[in-house]
Design brief:
The structure holds two protein chains of two kinds. Chain A is elongated, with a radius of gyration of 19 Å. Chain A is built from four helices and nine strands. Chain A starts with 5 loop residues before the first strand and ends in a 6-residue tail after the last strand. Chain A folds into two domains: about 80 residues, 2-Layer Sandwich (Alpha-Beta Plaits); about 70 residues, Alpha-Beta Plaits (2-Layer Sandwich). Chain A is an alpha+beta fold. In chain A, the strands form two sheets. In chain A, strands 5, 6, 7, 8 and 9 form a five-stranded antiparallel beta sheet that branches. In chain A, strands 2-3-1-4 form a four-stranded antiparallel beta sheet, with helices on one face. By secondary structure, chain B is α/β, with parallel strands linked by helices. Chain B folds into three domains: about 190 residues, Rossmann fold, CATH 3.40.50.970; about 170 residues, TPP-binding domain (Rossmann fold), CATH 3.40.50; about 180 residues, 3-Layer(aba) Sandwich (Rossmann fold). Chain B is built from 23 helices and 20 strands. The chains are: A alpha+beta, B alpha/beta. The structure holds thiamine diphosphate and magnesium ion (MG). The site of thiamine diphosphate has 19 residues of chain B, from helix 17, helix 19 and helix 21.
Chain lengths: ~160, ~600
């Protein structure tokens, strides 16, 4: 179940030095909590995309959007309601296989449609790209085997497709 | 790297001031020329290593440079200039400490929405990030203290960025914009400063994310008009945005059309004439009883360019409990930020008020308005019962500051510009001066910056040389920026300063008096050191000291006669005097406390 407390805001910003600092500074000085953050260039080199997930219980969404809009380098803002958008996040995780659990871990990999990226005799590196809650589940499943290192990217999102009438 | 005898990149603009498009010039010349083309007639500044190359072409410029004694002074002068003229003020300071010294005025301009452009020198571009001499992260430090800031990397960007900076500073919700200029790109001796001149216009701007608001949504305005039409106990709650939008005339028309009383916040004093029968004066923590109470009991607040500041609302959960809210603001983020609204209109106050007037006419004009006679008589009842009040001093006692302000107001023309510091004297000035003209009151409202008044008064006088300008200052404030009176003397900017010397950081003392059982801590300045008259004289001003009520008017008259240098009139005022009314902090505005003598205790 998507959590309605968290809304995703997708912004297009000018690809200039310091823009991320402006956005991050705004969040911290206005007391907005960022739950997740992803930054990457777009297909147009003049712009980057910053995708945040904000806790709308920490600040009204409208205020967050309006304050962001005042930043000169923020070009456009799109709010995505969790109920009508698709979000994905990527996880890389290395998990211990030393106790002879390799085959059980591979079964989980199959189950979650994750990938094995790399392995040696003691650890295995996996990747999973999925809904953030599914990443949480995967992490839970792996934890008993011994997670050595884990990294998540922060989520990106797009609106769900509807039938074009 | 560059030998001392290399030929500087210098063009014929040094004598003609008028480079042709495509002509080779250097970034320093381009910066000066770009400022001239924005209509800048005066720059307040102080040079340093990083700005040497900019100061050189300034010698040939049509712009007047006013050399300040501290960069904070340059910033507040630019603010005072902008307040008084409506045109952006410009400050020019060096890197490092020059930049950090101007952070306070930037922050002040940001919170009070004052258009200004600040140019800071920076170490050469390649040296940024190396902890070079007088390097500081100016754009980083001022990110939250400006509407926007730029770090210029190429000389060729200078004309465009200057144009963008003025555009951002003056449109939408105005504010300070800073341009950080590395030394190499303006240095005639450095090849990185070479560029081809072009005059930047709107088409050159690269601001894809900047869309200042315009006229406001007609449907929302009609909905607001309908709420206004029906309201029986409405109040026009007017903030500084009215002045920024140059909407004072439209406001007058709206008030008279509807017969709705007007409160003018600390930032909006003068936006509606105090002498008008609908004017209730200043609301808020030190507002008068009627303004505070009318808002409190209103059934509709029509907020025009105001932002429900905590000093206006008092405790929020008890503020204007029965009022619906119409909120007009050019900044969408203000609408609903503090108080939920019934109708919000994002737009320029003048355009929205004009549209409101049209909508009200469509709804039947004055005859269709709800009956407000009961409301008006209630309001005038409060005015009669609880006017602004103080007790005149007894013979031989120290002066009452309110009396000094009243006398100043009476003995000066109505269009006199008043610039205030921050403290008790500010509240006396705001309440006891009668403002009948917009742009005659200049103060630091949002940030509350002590030391604001003297430099702000200087900036105002530079912008409005034909107007009389009085600074009303406290002794604490005076000691923070008095050195700018040297600037005023040397530059022949004949401002007048009324120094209300109570020997204390009076406003803080008042809080200790009322809420800390008179345990006075860290507030005593003493009235005698420094000797203000001698200090004024040392700075090239005339100094006058006033102790008794009979001396007040003659001293003001004498000060008004002097027009060739600044004057400081020191009034010895009563340290025991406190500002009333007052809403104790943490209380709702229903708990407004009037002057002790009005309480019938
Ligand atoms: C830069 C700065 N420091 C401290 C304060 C806190 N403060 C507000 S009013 C005030 C006293 C001002 O004293 P003075 O200028 O003598 O004015 P008075 O209240 O006595 O009229 C102080 C210290 C402030 N507003 N600004
Ligand atoms: Mg004082």
């Amino acid at each position: 179940m998507p959590n309605n407390r968290f809304h995703t805001i997708v912004t297009t910003v000018e690809n200039k030095p310091g823009v991320l600092a402006r956005v991050a500074g705004l969040f911290s000085r206005r007391g907005f909590n960022i739950e997740s953050l992803a930054v990457a260039p777009t297909d147009d080199e003049r712009f980057s995309r910053i995708t945040f997930t904000v806790d709308v219980e920490s600040a009204p969404l409208e205020q967050v959007v309006n304050q962001l809009d005042k930043l000169i380098n923020v070009v456009s803002i799109r709010e995505l309601d969790p109920r009508s958008s698709v979000s994905r996040e990527l996880m890389l995780v290395t998990v211990s296989v030393s106790d002879g659990h390799r085959s059980r871990i591979l079964a989980h990999v199959d189950d979650f449609r994750a990938y094995v990226l790399n392995e040696n005799s003691s650890v295995m590196m996996l990747s999973l790209s999925a809904r953030p809650t599914r990443l949480d589940d995967f992490e839970e499943v792996l934890r008993p085997y011994g997670i050595v290192e884990l990294q998540r990217t922060g989520r990106v999102a797009l609106p769900s497709l509807t039938d074009e009438a | 790297m560059f030998s001392a005898d290399s030929t500087p990149i210098r063009s014929i603009i040094m004598t003609t001031h008028n480079p042709k498009p495509g002509e080779s010039i250097n970034g320093g010349e381009a910066l000066v020329r770009a400022l001239e083309l924005e209509g800048v007639d005066v720059v307040f500044g102080l040079p340093g290593g990083a700005t040497l190359p900019i100061y050189d072409p300034i010698l040939e410029s049509t712009m007047r440079h006013i050399l300040v004694r501290h960069e904070q002074g340059a910033g507040h002068m630019a603010q005072g200039y902008a307040h008084a003229t409506g045109r952006p003020g410009v400050a020019l300071v060096t890197s490092g400490p020059g930049a950090t010294n101007i952070v306070t005025p930037l922050c002040d301009a940001q919170i009070d929405s004052i258009p200004m452009v600040c140019i800071t020198g920076q170490v050469p571009y390649a040296a940024i990030g190396t902890d070079a001499f007088q390097e500081c992260d100016t754009t980083g430090i001022t990110m939250a203290a400006t509407k926007h800031n730029f770090l210029v990397s190429e000389a060729a960007d200078i004309p465009r960025i200057v144009h963008e900076a003025f555009h951002i500073a003056t449109t939408g919700r105005p504010g300070p914009v800073l341009i950080d200029v590395p030394k190499d790109i303006v240095d005639a001796n450095n090849p990185r400063s070479a560029m081809q001149w072009y005059q930047a216009g709107d088409a050159d701007m690269e601001l894809p994310g900047y869309h200042p608001a315009g006229a406001g949504d007609r449907e929302a305005i009609m909905a607001a008009a309908e709420l206004i039409r029906q309201a029986e106990r409405p109040v026009l709650y007017v903030g500084g945005g009215i002045l920024k939008a140059r909407a004072a005339e439209s406001l007058l028309e709206l008030a008279e059309l509807t017969g709705i009383p007007v409160v003018t916040t600390l930032m909006a004093r003068g936006a509606f004439p105090d002498s008008h029968e609908l004017c209730l004066g200043m609301p808020g923590m030190h507002g008068n009883y009627t303004a505070v109470t009318a808002m409190q009991q209103a059934d509709l607040l029509i907020s025009l360019g105001a932002r429900f500041d905590d000093r206006v609302t008092g405790r929020l959960d008890g503020f204007a409990p029965d009022a619906k809210v119409v909120h007009v603001d050019i900044d969408e983020a203000e609408i609903g930020k503090v108080r939920a609204v019934d109708v919000g209109v994002r737009g320029d106050c003048k355009l929205v008020i004009d549209a409101l007037i049209e909508c009200l006419a469509e709804l039947g004009g004055p005859d269709a308005q709800a009956d407000r006679s009961a409301w008006r008589s209630k309001v005038s009842g409060w005015q009669e019962k609880y006017p602004l009040f103080y007790e005149q001093s007894r013979p031989g006692d120290l002066l009452k500051p309110q009396y000094v302000v009243e006398q100043l107001c009476d003995l000066n023309p109505a269009d006199t510009i008043v610039a205030s510091g921050v403290g008790q004297h500010q509240m006396y000035a705001s309440n006891f001066w009668k403002f009948d003209h917009p742009y005659t009151w200049i103060n630091s409202g949002g940030l509350g910056t002590m030391g604001f008044s003297i430099p702000a008064a200087i900036g105002a006088k530079v912008g409005m040389p034909d107007r009389r300008v009085w600074a009303i200052d406290g002794d604490g404030c005076f000691q923070m920026t008095a050195q700018e009176l040297v600037t005023a003397s040397v530059e022949q900017i004949p401002i007048k300063v009324a120094l209300l010397n109570n020997g204390y950081l009076g406003m803080v003392r008042q809080w200790q008096d009322l809420f800390y059982e008179k345990r006075f801590s860290g507030v005593e300045l003493g009235p005698d050191v420094p000797n203000y008259v001698k200090w004024a004289e040392a700075m090239g001003c005339v100094g006058i000291r006033v102790d008794s009520p009979e001396e007040v008017a003659p001293a003001i008259a004498k000060a008004n006669e002097i027009d060739d240098r600044p004057v400081v009139v020191e009034f010895r005022t009563d340290p025991e005097e406190n500002v009333f009314p007052m809403v104790p902090s943490g209380h709702t505005n229903s708990d407004v406390v009037v002057h002790p003598a009005q309480r019938g205790e």
